[in-house]
Design goal:
- The protein is mostly beta strands.
- Helix content is 9%, strand content 56%.
- A twelve-stranded antiparallel β-barrel has the order 1-4-5-6-7-8-9-10-11-12-13-14. Strands 2-3 form a two-stranded antiparallel sheet.
- A hairpin with a 2-residue loop joins β6 and β7.
Length: 232
Amino acid sequence: MKWQALRGVAVAGVMAMGPGASGAAQADVGGTLALTSDYVWRGSSQTGEDPAVQAGARATRGTGLYASVWGSNVAFEPDSGARSEFDAVLGWSGELAPNWSLDANATRYLYPGTGRALDWTELSATATFRQRAWLQLAHSRDALAGGHPGTYAQIGMRLPLSGATRLEAAYGHYRLASAQARDYQHVQLSVIHAIAPKWELRATGHATDSAARQLFPGNAGSRLEVALQASF
């Protein structure tokens, strides 16, 4: 039932972008389902290092416009009352030039049960070169629902090792207003293996600097995340 609801929200979002059409303008719907040992976001655990079940759905038009929704269980310390997170996204993705693609979107982070105290919105753009390297820039006037602006930048690379296995490495820098917290940095390295068509097993090592550990005590630092993900 939860998966059907997620899928329905994404379809409704794309249909709301404009009148129905045939051919390339029809919505293409897909999604993911994952089980992970830890939900790590920008270097910090969102589940207190406990496992998470995650599901997402995305509907895309031939024009590149898309709508998606993604959800996961969460557990924050100190306890904020949040037990789940839902990310609602509206965006556009497509080819900018030969070898270059762009994904630009607006994401609304939602945490039911918190009276909207933790909800916030972020604008993001990711440029990708030959599916081998990417650069992401994201900005919010209310970063982390803290009432101050924040800008996040990530650069990453993807290296195929075989037809079924690849390495991915990324470095991220989160620039936050000094009134909220110090800027922090994190790195991650993943080994991803396709164990069957549309099924992947991923192992990711995460590490953060001392500023992240100060901002997210107990949830930032060095950790290993293992996830199994299916795509539909």
